[in-house]
Design a protein that fits this description.
five-stranded antiparallel β-sheet, alpha+beta, 40% helix, single chain, 249 residues, globular
Length: 249
């Protein structure tokens, strides 16, 4: 049935599907896992780092990108599509600032990115962007914000969310474990969430921290490894306590 309707992006199938948009969502589901957590005074982005060959420069392979001094995003999906979308968003941030003389709000730039993505779902001769984004930042009044956009052009606000490979598992963990904590607590929660699906520990995790009025900070590998060891030790302790309580019964 799908073969009759999945060649033209502007044609609905009889059951109301746009297959090209669903294929774009599948590209996102195959992408590296990304997670974002909003705390009281900090916002944390975490991504599963793609392994690079020994001769490749790792800093050129980034899943966390700045849009403006106070806004950044993480994405899952096709890197080339993300580059095009991010460049357009950066231009819009600067254009808005020149026109209005105020920095953009997080909702405004999320709506702008979602608008571009939606436009590419109903125009002939193009295809949807194969990425979802987690956009984080601070509004002019200092309020931390987190939004998600997807290839269909929808956007929504979240307290914590995940996209990419195994995002459902990470999201379920966040639903159980999320509390609006301070800086260290929020960083630990983001790393814990990634460790639910990342098996190689801190070596393949990248963490970025955004605080009000401060530039985006990437945690170095040693700091991530320290937190990962603490989290694993905590898990082991809980496991031993469960075993001990089971023996008592």
């Amino acid at each position: 049935m799908s073969s009759r309707y999945d060649r033209a992006i502007t044609v609905f199938s009889p059951d109301g599907h746009l297959f090209q948009v669903e294929y774009a969502l599948e590209a996102v589901r195959k992408g590296a896992t990304a997670v974002a957590v909003r705390g009281k005074d900090v916002i944390v982005l975490g991504v599963e780092k793609k392994s690079v060959v020994s001769l490749q420069e790792p800093r050129t392979v980034r899943k966390i990108l700045k849009l403006d001094d106070h806004i950044c995003l993480a994405f899952a999906g096709l890197t080339a599509d993300a580059r095009v979308l991010v460049n357009r968003a950066r231009i819009e941030c600067q254009s808005y600032k020149l026109t209005v003389e105020d920095p953009v709000s997080v909702e405004y730039i999320s709506r702008y990115i979602a608008g571009i993505q939606q436009k590419y779902t109903q125009s002939g001769g193009v295809r949807p962007f194969g990425i979802s984004t987690l956009i984080v930042g601070y509004d002019p009044d200092g309020t931390p914000r987190l939004y998600q956009t997807d290839p269909s052009g929808t956007y929504s606000a979240w307290k914590a969310n995940a996209i990419g490979r195994n995002s459902k598992t990470v999201r379920e963990f966040l639903e159980k474990a999320y509390t609006e904590g301070t800086g260290e607590e929020t960083i630990r929660l983001a790393i814990k969430a990634l460790l639910e699906v990342v098996e190689t520990g801190g070596k393949t995790i990248e963490i970025a921290v955004l605080r009000k009025g401060q530039p985006l900070t990437l945690l170095d590998d040693k700091e991530i490894e320290r937190i990962v060891k603490d989290v694993e030790a905590e898990k082991e302790k809980e496991k031993q306590q469960k075993i001990a309580s089971g023996d008592d019964k």
